[in-house]
Amino acid sequence: MSLLSPSLEAFWAVVQKGTVLEAAKMVNLTQTGVTQRIRSLEKQLGVTLFTRSRKGMRLTQEGESLLRYVQVARDLEGDTLSKISGKKESSFFEVCISGTSTLMRSRIIPKASLVMKKNPKLRVRFDITDTDSVLGKLKTGFAQIGALPANQVGLELDSKTLAPERYVLVGTSAWKKRTLDDILANEPIIDFDPQDTVTLDLLKKYKLAGKAQKLRNYANNIDALTYMLQQGLGYSTLTEEFARPYIKDGSLCLLASDLHLDYSVALAWYPRTEMPPYFKQLVESLTKKT
């Protein structure tokens, strides 16, 4: 049972699925039926809620605002139905947490797992991304919680600062006896994509960027990038937390123990009038200092 109007249910389905076709399957309507409900809602509000793109339906700024209302309403729905009926609500709660692969694997997933064990009706989607905008996923409603650079957190978001990510310079353990100057001159950098500047930023901090090769190797997957490092196909920066087990097992080594680069990160979410218990537990667990 849902307390949302049919039009808002259709709106929520399109947000969740990204296309009218998949939304229609979710709410057991025809595509025409979903489209009609969205148009009716837009007419009532006097705004456009979606724009069409090659990637599907994208929320407008007005649509993003309505989405935050729907998210809060759905959060309160279970508790409200429980109080009305006098029975414990049996519905499940869903939340998506988005962040970079290193942060998600070393901190977010382990800490969120503790909350999931205490809340058997909580279902979590861990969205691991190194190339897409976490802020964009919060705005579109794809994610409800995001771990992102602190300087990207806008005034419209609630947030808590996390311990900074410390990046270190790493390479295959076979290079242990080589000098850093030799490695920079003769080996390429491995980054996620051309827009990834973390390794260069670290080198610039210590005025070493001019010694590095210009052409880089790329792997937009942390496991593939780590494998390339282990195989001696180049060097890169990894967070200290993520690199630790590889350094411990001897497959990677620090190329310069005194070089590091700290990035400020934060946990962010859109404000809620009343934060559901499971959501509050997630925020507290993910921001707890260890």
Automatic annotation (TrEMBL):
Protein name stated in the entry: Putative LysR-family transcriptional regulator
One of the record's GO molecular function terms: transcription cis-regulatory region binding
Gene3D superfamilies assigned: 3.40.190.290, Winged helix-like DNA-binding domain superfamily/Winged helix DNA-binding domain
Pfam families registered for this protein in UniProt: HTH_1, LysR_substrate
Cross-referenced PANTHER family: HTH-TYPE TRANSCRIPTIONAL REGULATOR, HTH-TYPE TRANSCRIPTIONAL REGULATOR GLTR
Residues annotated as domain HTH lysR-type: 1-60
Organism the protein comes from: Bdellovibrio bacteriovorus (strain ATCC 15356 / DSM 50701 / NCIMB 9529 / HD100)
UniProt keyword Transcription regulation, yes or no: yes
The family this protein is said to belong to: Belongs to the LysR transcriptional regulatory family.
Top-level taxon in the UniProt lineage: Bacteria
Cross-referenced InterPro entries: LysR_HTH_N, LysR_subst-bd, WH-like_DNA-bd_sf, WH_DNA-bd_sf
Phylogenetic lineage: Bacteria, Pseudomonadati, Bdellovibrionota, Bdellovibrionia, Bdellovibrionales
Keyword tags: DNA-binding, Transcription, Transcription regulation
